[in-house]
Write a structure and sequence with these properties.
mainly alpha; two-stranded antiparallel sheet
């Protein structure tokens, strides 16, 4: 009698999305300078083990808690027709690198890291469709985003990227990130996360100059000084806008260097008073697929972080 293939559920897809995000984090770590790249071994191993555990649950295969790592998973999963996995040798090698690094403090070599990156990618690409019936690159990590509006925007960005409209895809990621800070507590008129009232629109220096120069009566400011003051006011306004956004990012616990990288990789998106949306970028702007994946992963991790912040903001009983 043939064992039926279990149906995919939203919960399984969500857990696969987390595994893929963890795998991508490991891949990003593997490209860092030594010794920062060593931590990729832990991320790769965690992602693979989470996949094997999920495969056992999905196929209803019992995985013993003791025994050699690859034997426990590969031998027992193979009892199910969809559990005959490939990549056993690479997983065993990855497990050895992880144990040497974690328990013996033996840093993996650059060759070991490159092998782990290649072995892990091959493992996921080969076995995801075999066990779960979906292609690995079809797993949508946007399903991890709790905020519905942000999740929908990121999915739109993914569709644009898939159709090679990469610039609009990157612009949509900017929209998604900005949307994270539209609700409470970041949009309150006062509070720990607002850092003063939001400056919605910055006057141009020429407009400020014109107002100062054409003051009434004796309060009018000489043209030269009005120009200097206009420049200073415009500069201070721009600084305050930048600082306010940066402080909200830092106060929320979002990694600032990653935020800075996100800002560098994405275009400038502005909404006019007319409601029009404008996307501005460098004339040679050409983000790669890796750039898009980095920015998408940043938006997802930021969304998850802000949910944690909102949890800390719940009012105590005496203030509810």
């Amino acid at each position: 009698m043939t064992t039926p293939t279990p149906a995919m559920t939203p919960e399984v897809m969500k857990r696969l999305a987390f595994i893929r995000m963890l795998h991508q984090q490991g891949t990003a770590q593997s490209h860092q300078a030594e010794p920062l790249n060593c931590t990729c071994i832990l991320a790769f191993h965690d992602a693979v083990e989470l996949f094997l555990l999920l495969a056992g649950e999905h196929l209803a295969v019992n995985i013993p808690e003791t025994g050699k790592f690859d034997n426990r998973y590969f031998d027992n999963l193979a009892k199910h027709p969809d559990g005959k996995l490939s990549g056993r040798k690479g997983v065993r090698r990855l497990n050895d690198h992880r144990n040497n690094f974690k328990h013996a403090h033996a840093w993996p070599s650059r060759d070991a890291i490159e092998d782990a990156r290649a072995d892990t990618m091959a493992f996921f690409e080969d076995n995801t469709p075999r066990v779960f019936g979906v292609a690995y690159d079809a797993i949508d990590m946007a399903d991890l985003i709790p905020q519905e509006r942000v999740r929908d925007i990121v999915k739109q960005a993914q569709e644009k990227e898939s159709s090679d409209d990469t610039i609009e895809a990157m612009a949509l990621l900017v929209d998604a990130f900005d949307d994270l800070f539209r609700g409470k507590p970041w949009s309150d008129t006062e509070g720990a996360y607002t850092f003063g009232p939001r400056i919605r629109r910055s006057l141009r220096e020429a407009d400020i100059h014109r107002v100062l120069e054409h003051g009434r009566g004796k309060s009018a400011i000489p043209t030269a000084k009005a120009g200097d003051l206009a420049g200073q006011i415009a500069t201070i306004t721009e600084v305050v806008i930048a600082l306010q956004g940066a402080m909200q990012v830092l106060a929320s616990g979002i990694d600032y260097p990653q935020y800075d990288r996100f800002q560098v990789l994405t275009p400038h998106v502005a909404y006019m008073m007319s409601g029009d949306r404008r996307v501005a970028h460098h004339q040679n702007y050409a983000p790669s697929k890796e750039d898009f994946e980095y920015c998408k992963r940043f938006v997802i991790s930021s969304a998850l972080r802000l949910v944690e912040v909102e949890g800390h903001r719940s009012a105590p009983p005496w203030l509810a």
